[in-house]
Amino acid sequence: MKQCPCGKSKPFEACCGKFLSGKQTAKTPEQLMRSRYTAYALGGYGQYLMTTWFPVSAQGLSADELSEKTQEWTRLEVISSSQQGDKATVEFKAYFTAPNALNLDAGQEDVMHEVSEFVRIKSKWYYIGGNVS
């Protein structure tokens, strides 16, 4: 069994795979964030990304576009997670290489630092958006 890309040291099927397959929904914002990272890291899970995105925030996006793998996501570091009622934030760093990026050498690792916002509606968590630095 291959290890899950989200960094939890669990097999994919026992970790984010159960969310990406639709067998379960994320119970916490951190689980949702990790599963969304995994969807990007693996590619081909645009429909999952769309269904876990707060609908108003996802306007103009498509499952086909989100399924495309544009970077090689290499690792995830969760910095913090907080929740107040039905609202939450997760701060993380997602590391990647972008082989054809204009301002990176091919294969050089870069980082995306984000504080993501989530909302819970009828017991289901949704990604609203994030502040990237």
- Spatial ordering of strands, largest sheet: 1-2-3-4
Q: How many domains in all?
A: 1
Label the CATH architecture. Answer: Roll
Class by SSE composition = alpha+beta
Sheet with most strands: 4 strands, antiparallel
Question: Which quaternary structure do these chains form?
Answer: single chain
Distance between the termini: 34 Å
CATH fold topology: Nuclear Transport Factor 2, Chain: A
- Summed up, the helix count is 4
> Which residues sit in consecutive blocks of at least 5 with pLDDT less than 50?
none
Instruction: Bin the helical content.
Output: 10-25%
Protein traits:
133 residues, 4 helices, alpha+beta, Nuclear Transport Factor 2, Chain: A, single chain, globular
Can you put this structure into words, describing what you see?
This protein has one domain: Roll (Nuclear Transport Factor 2, Chain: A), CATH 3.10.450. It is built from four helices and four strands, in the order H-H-H-H-E-E-E-E. With 133 residues, the chain is of the alpha+beta class. The chain has a four-stranded antiparallel β-sheet, with helices on one face. The longest helix has 14 residues, at 29-42.
What is shown here, in short?
This protein has 133 residues and is an alpha+beta fold.
